[in-house]
């Protein structure tokens, strides 16, 4: 008994001195199923988690273990859930990318995700199978600091908001249109949602319905989002975007937004009236309730970077307590930014720097440079998106399993190109040869090497048109070294890189006819997707896969197998 009592005494002393406090285990049980909902007053089939969309918010502290048991109760669809921004260090098989890190979760089965949230910040989770994110399968992950530690900025209350766009067609209808000949584009969204709530103009239906419940503006599902604030208090708003297509501007009428966090990293604070946010990005902004407390104020989201005249703005209400929550602001909603003026969007991108005292200095030089030219092309008459004239296709056997078990027939062993014809390619013109090729080949990175990625935007198949693309990297954060207009100059532009205080992020836009330069360490063993976060663009081939340190990946759990050549392993 003496040794046992001695160990207990040591543990008690350690706890009293603040040492040896174990991280918590946070357990969740989710049922994913189809339900009819009316988030913008128009009823459609959506995907819910425990009856909700957005799904439950995961709240944890740094170094906690998250265990989520997901039961797929959809009738005919597989699912997979990606934990966006969580690097999955030591657990690459739980990244949640179907076809890359796992086989899908089949209807009627339960799958357990288990991973550590190693860094505080604002993150999200969402479907990563087909285009299911567009059906409502998404939510927030909020990771706080350990007890006793504090943020480098002060606030009184912490709230989170997810911004989204919303389509009335199902993801299956959208996918069929994108895959057919002739090409059928999904169009602009019918609504914008602020934390799952929007307002569609039911009178604009092209064919009036005899079903009075199909579009009903009195449905409580679509009552406006309301954020209640106490006068004089400061609020940390964690604003995330999980749009399917749209780049957004977010604003709160009459209130400044002080940006303090981006994708889990502290930002040198700066003030904006409009927060430009792209799909997959997360920000924290500080808002002080310092305006006239006798009135309420508009919260709005608007589409930028695309013409969307028929998509109404997202609208919510900032309610000053004790005003009645249903009292509308006495003003009209603030005007939206000019949709095709890219200058303020570029200026905000360039303003985001790492906060003093929290700067992670990047390596001074890289070991390898890959330039990704983003183009729109065709394969046998089918419209595709391509990277260096290669359109990505998912294999039937997930890359992580194929690489670990040396299943060389599971995907193309030829790597895609590291660049394009820099000298002769005109990024401002529609390319005369629109044909491209498809491949499921991957980029193999030397473990622990330093990688530079240059995202180069170009003209689409429409004249004088270039689109904004938000690119998301799984399994890593990267340093954002710089942005530029026009064609990247490999001889001169690297001299302009910010190597002093670059922000680290996991999602970043490349602006129309512009370039974005990133740097990261290939130090997380696994197979990781890097792709445009616009659902239709990734579906149409705008992505790549990086593999690094596969020999260091531990034994793969059997739960991720069962598809393609993994059967029987």
From TrEMBL:
SUPFAM superfamilies documented for this protein: Cupredoxins (SSF49503)
One Pfam assignment: Cu-oxidase_3
Catalytic reaction annotation: 4 L-ascorbate + O2 = 4 monodehydro-L-ascorbate radical + 2 H2O
Signal peptide: 1-23
Uppermost EC category: oxidoreductase
Main localization (coarse): secreted
Assigned EC number: 1.10.3.3
Name of this protein: L-ascorbate oxidase
């Amino acid at each position: 008994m003496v040794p046992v009592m001695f160990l207990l005494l040591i543990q008690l002393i350690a706890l009293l001195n603040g040492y040896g406090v174990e991280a918590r285990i946070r357990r969740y049980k989710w049922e994913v199923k189809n339900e009819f909902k009316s988030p913008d007053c128009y009823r459609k089939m959506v995907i819910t988690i425990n009856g909700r969309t957005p799904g439950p918010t995961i709240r944890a502290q740094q170094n906690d273990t998250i265990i989520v048991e997901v039961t797929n109760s959809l009738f005919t669809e597989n699912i997979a859930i990606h934990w966006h921004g969580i690097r999955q260090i030591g657990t690459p098989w739980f990244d949640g990318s179907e076809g890359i890190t796992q086989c899908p979760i089949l209807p009627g089965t339960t799958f357990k995700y288990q991973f550590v949230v190693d860094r505080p910040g604002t993150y999200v989770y969402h479907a990563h199978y087909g285009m299911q994110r567009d059906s409502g399968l998404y939510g927030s992950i909020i990771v706080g600091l350990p007890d006793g530690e504090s943020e480098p900025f002060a606030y009184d209350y912490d709230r989170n908001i997810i911004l989204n766009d919303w389509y009335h067609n199902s993801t299956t209808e959208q996918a069929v249109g994108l895959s057919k000949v002739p090409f059928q584009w999904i169009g602009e969204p019918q609504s914008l949602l602020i934390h799952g709530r929007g307002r569609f103009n039911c009178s604009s239906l092209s064919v009036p319905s005899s079903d009075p419940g199909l579009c009903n503006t009195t449905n409580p599902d679509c009552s406006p989002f309301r954020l209640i604030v106490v006068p004089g208090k400061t609020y940390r708003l964690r604003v995330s975007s999980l749009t399917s297509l749209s780049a957004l501007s977010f604003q709160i009428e009459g209130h400044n937004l002080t940006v303090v966090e981006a994708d889990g990293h502290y930002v040198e604070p700066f003030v904006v009236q409009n927060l430009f946010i792209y799909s997959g990005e997360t920000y924290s902004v500080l808002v002080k309730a310092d305006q006239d407390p006798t009135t309420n104020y508009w919260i709005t989201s608007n589409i930028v970077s695309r013409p969307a005249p028929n998509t109404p703005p997202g609208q919510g209400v900032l309610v000053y307590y004790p005003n009645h929550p249903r009292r509308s602001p006495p003003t009209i909603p603030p005007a939206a930014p000019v949709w095709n003026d890219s200058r303020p969007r570029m200026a905000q991108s360039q303003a985001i720097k790492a906060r003093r005292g929290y700067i992670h200095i990047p390596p001074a030089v890289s070991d390898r440079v890959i330039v990704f030219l983003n183009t729109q092309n065709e394969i046998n008459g089918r419209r595709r998106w391509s990277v260096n004239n290669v359109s990505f296709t998912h294999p039937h056997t997930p890359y992580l399993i194929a690489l670990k078990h040396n299943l060389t027939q599971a995907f193309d062993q030829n790597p895609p190109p590291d660049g394009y014809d820099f000298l002769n390619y005109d990024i401002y013109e529609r390319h005369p040869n629109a044909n491209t090729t498809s491949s499921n080949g991957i980029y193999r990175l030397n473990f622990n090497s330093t990688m530079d990625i240059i995202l180069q935007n170009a003209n689409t198949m429409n004249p004088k048109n270039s689109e904004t693309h938000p690119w998301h990297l799984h399994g890593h954060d990267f340093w954002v070294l710089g942005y530029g207009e026009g064609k990247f100059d490999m001889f001169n532009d690297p001299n302009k890189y910010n190597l002093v205080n670059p922000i680290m992020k996991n999602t970043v836009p490349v602006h129309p006819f512009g370039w974005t330069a990133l740097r990261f360490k290939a130090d997380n063993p696994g197979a990781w997707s890097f792709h445009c976060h616009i659902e239709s663009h990734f579906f149409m081939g705008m992505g790549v896969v990086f593999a690094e340190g596969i020999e260091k990946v531990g034994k793969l759990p059997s739960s991720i197998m069962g598809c393609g050549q993994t059967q029987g392993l």
